[in-house]
Amino acid sequence: MARVLNVKKAIRRRNRLLLQEQYYHQQRRLYFDKDDDDDDGDDEEDEDEEDDEENERESFAYPHPLRIIGLMLIIYNTAILYQSVRFEFSLQDEIESLVPLLPQFGSAGRSLRSLQSTLNQEDTESQGNNMDAAEKEAGPGLDNSDQLADVKNESEGQEDEPEEEAVLEWNHPATSPPWTVFLHIYLPPRDQGDDHHDNGLNIVREQIEQVAQSFAGRSSSQPVGQSGGDFSANAATSTNTTIAATTVVYYTSIGGRMQRDWMRQLCQEHGLDCQNLGHHMEGHEMITLDKVQDFCAHHPQQIVSYVHTKGSFHADMEGNGEEGAIHQSLWRYHMTAAATSQECLLALSSPFPKIPASSIANSTDGNQTESFPKASSASSCNACGLLFSPLPLEHFTGNSWAAQCKYIQQLLPSSELQVKRAILMENLKQDGLQAKFLPAVPNNVGSGRYLGEQWIGSSPQLVPCDVSREVGIAYWMGEKRNTTIEFDLHLAPRFPMNHSDWAWNAAIEDGEVLEKPYRRMRDFFLLPGHLHRWAQEYKAFPPITSWVWDWFVDGHRWRKRVDQHGVSAVQTFIHSQA
Predict the structure, then answer these.
(1) With a threshold of 0.70, does the pTM exceed it?
(2) 277, 162 in Cβ contact below 8 A?
């Protein structure tokens, strides 16, 4: 039905444009035709006519505004008739750009303004007709994305859905807990198949239920922190500080639409206050993460848990069918559990638990011992997740995590970081670095949509902790674990770089890089590359207490160079070796 309305709309617009084209020709004749009523036939009049013709020919040497509009109408009319080329031409935008240039043309300028107003009014009316018809055809609980592609508001009686560019006021409930959940939803459109769409809805339902049952989502009285001491899973019950509030879940949806009432009812059934931040036909995680950062700018004392519907975009993993889908489901369950866990949220709320210190030795040849140190016992982590990995770039595996808003405020906005990352990679070779240890592909260097997976770890001020006792993520994909028993809060990374079970070990492209100091000191994926990236993007390095100096090969050597040369340490060393 909606497609039929779209065709009718196109025909109406085509007819309107034909009339507008006639209007253009009339205006052209009015502007260029000269008064020939005199029939004296003398030579002087003939000379005047020749002058007029010459002036008209000269006027065609320059792009007259009415000529531009005529050409614009023809192009737009062609686009309407041949929609298969998927070309979209905005008549309103073109008129808006021309109207300010036409005050000297009197009636022509006024006519253009009238045309602009008429088009805006008719587009609004036709959009409303399309919206009503499409919503009647949509089934309960979800909408057909192809039918609602150009519908920006819900039906009358429902609140408007925020635009992507909307400025949010963040009227966050004052009685909410000190943590807030952000959920990034990808829902496959109906035209990709009912099975994929329904699988996406099931994932949303499953995650809402899991958040509601987690420590972050319980609306009954819960401890919010302690002044210090042990933060084990059982210690929280001994505190006297409690809250009695409903957790807020802000969500953004991509792809297929969900009806608001379906999501609202689902959340209410599980005691959550879910707030819709908008829908986008296409996009990636940075759409939601940008809103996380904006929220934190208004609520710097909050803790944010970020989770997403992993597995809704690719139903299985690497084409492994049902087994792959199970792996995705288990991975999603465990990383959501970590991001909303008591371990992570209390660690971010209060001073980190005391951890016995250990030591590490870096030999002169750059090889590490098997043991790896914990960070200073006085440290507090500012981000926490299931499993933290420093390579290829710092990230939480799966990209679900919890973090302090005061740390998130320190992160570069995604748009700025995207530009700086692109410049960094473009200039990598001329800066004297190479990317040989691991493949320099987008998901390894954090470019494009993959920036969202590395954004939380991009700052040199990151102090991570995690809850996985296993270095391999495969452990959390094999079966559903008892997280109450198996989650073990720890400053990260807790495993040394030379541990054989790191996931990135399988992707090593040139293992000889580690064995040759000359190459090791110039590789993008090793410490020189990380330092260079921090210097270029954040103009800063990690503090001397950071895990970075102990975990990476040659860490202590580079820390001395940083002490001597500051943010130019890497470039100074490379130039000295040239």
Answers:
(1) no
(2) yes
